[in-house]
Amino acid sequence: MVVNTLYLPELREMLAQKDEAGLTEFCTAIHPARVAEFMEGLTPEEAWEVLQYADSPLREQIFTYFDTDKQQAILRSIPPEEAARLVANLPPDERVDILKSLDPEFASALLSRIPSEDRRDILRLTAYPENTAGAIMTSAFPKVTGDMTVREALDALARQAAELETIYYVYVVDDQDHLQGVVAARRLLSAMGKPETPVRQLAETSLITAHVLEDKEEVAQKVARFDLLAIPVVDDENRILGIITHDDIIDVVVDEATEDVHRMGGITPFIENVLEAPFFLVWRKRVGWLAALFVAELFTFTALAYFEEAIAAVIALSLFVPLVISTGGNSGSQAATLMTRALALRQVTPRDWGRVLRHELVMGLALGITLGAIGFVRAALTPESVLGNADRWLLALTVGQAVACVCLWGSLVGALLPLILRALGFDPGFASSPFVATFVDCTGIIIYFNIAHFWLF
């Protein structure tokens, strides 16, 4: 970014001059995310030197806003003891993420230097399967018991505050950490006028929770549906193990959306910046689908070769092949995109296949008749020099009918394929636009020439 380039000379000059006042102001005067952004062009050693001018909590906060590659580079550039101390002071979910991103040998070396209590918490969180609520939760959350008074609860929260990532809700538990209720921090503060009120009288007992092994995408749906700032994570016995905050939910939504977009574009999902990722990685992620789709498109050649005699008899038929098959691919891609989105939002499920089929039959017919009429007019205007011995109106009828049928077929394939994949346990994002378009291209040629055979031969 331009703004980063403007700040780099100033930052390097302050580092060279050991400008303590200037560097301290730089770290504290603006949002930590902006501080990290302005430091993007610094070397890992320079970035770590700048971070020394921020107090410990702020230093860790700025560190979390660096991209993963920058975090790894900084950890490798500083003494192991300092790296371990930095990781130990991160929020529980953040330190688990950074350790997972490191190679096992280096992560193990850091973990051995982290205090035993923090190490046990890290190992517990890393034990949960990837993409589950347990893998993204934080174990630092505010909790009080139901028999505490408002005054006692606020005193307890004051003692816990330094270790907490956030205090949106206060969770009410018993002696074994069974979740009994939740009270908004604002309500707890508002009750200070009656400081002897038991917390259980203020707590909401109708709770929305996430199971520790629940898929993180389903948890994100819950948070969005009920407009929560955080959601408690519980085990089979309703013991609270941690919470998932809204910022982690945003990360989940972004990751899932990115994954779906990549798959719908015929790309194996990856999280790296496309311009900064290794060339071979991007090539590998893209070439697999492209090669598979290219091989599938070879069936188009086979289909055209099968109808070679029809093409030779009526040359004008070949001129409308791109028009017909692109119509099917476009309508199929539209339907697949709409249905994948509807599945992601839980607007439809595989059980709704009957409704989807009826809807796309009607919609596909309406779209097909519209486009078919346009195709009919264009085919009717075919010049005599190209038309040959074919009847103008029969050719127009062939093209119009073929466009309508292929459009209907593409809509049905695009709408039903994501449902079939979801029913089989696969991500509906695999019903990518290129995949649907390739399939409809091949079958569309068969539809087109069979209709031509009926009318023209």
The CATH superfamily of the largest domain is identified as SLC41 divalent cation transporters, integral membrane domain
Helix content: 55-70%
Q: What's the Cα radius of gyration? A: 30 Å
Residues in β-strands, percent: 5-15%
Distance between the termini: 64 Å
Number-wise, the strands total 6
The CATH class of the largest domain, by name, is: Mainly Alpha
Summed over residues and divided by their number, the pLDDT gives a mean of 87
* CATH architecture label name of the largest domain: Orthogonal Bundle
Number of helices: 23
Secondary-structure-derived class: mainly alpha
Report the order of strands and helices: HHHHHHHHHHHEHEEHEHEEHHHHHHHHH
Widest beta sheet: strand line-up: 1-2-3
**CATH-derived topology of the largest domain:** Tetracycline Repressor, domain 2
Structure notes:
By secondary structure, the protein is mainly alpha-helical. It has 3 domains: 2-129, Alpha Horseshoe (MgtE N-terminal fold); 143-245, CBS-domain (Roll); 279-456, Tetracycline Repressor, domain 2, CATH 1.10.357.20. The chain is 66% helix and 6% strand. The chain has 23 helices and 6 strands. It has helices at residues 2-17, 20-29, 32-38, 44-51, 56-64, 68-77, 80-88, 92-101, 104-113, 116-126, 133-136, 150-160, 185-190, 216-226, 246-264, 279-306, 308-313, 316-319, 321-344, 353-380, 384-387, 392-423, 433-456, and strands spanning 143-145, 169-173, 179-184, 210-211, 230-234, 240-245. The strands form 2 sheets. The protein has a 3-stranded mixed sheet. Strands 4-5-6 form a 3-stranded mixed sheet. A hairpin with a 5-residue loop joins β2 (169-173) and β3. α16 (279-306) runs parallel beside α23 and α20 (353-380) runs antiparallel to α22. Residues 1-6 have low confidence and may be disordered.
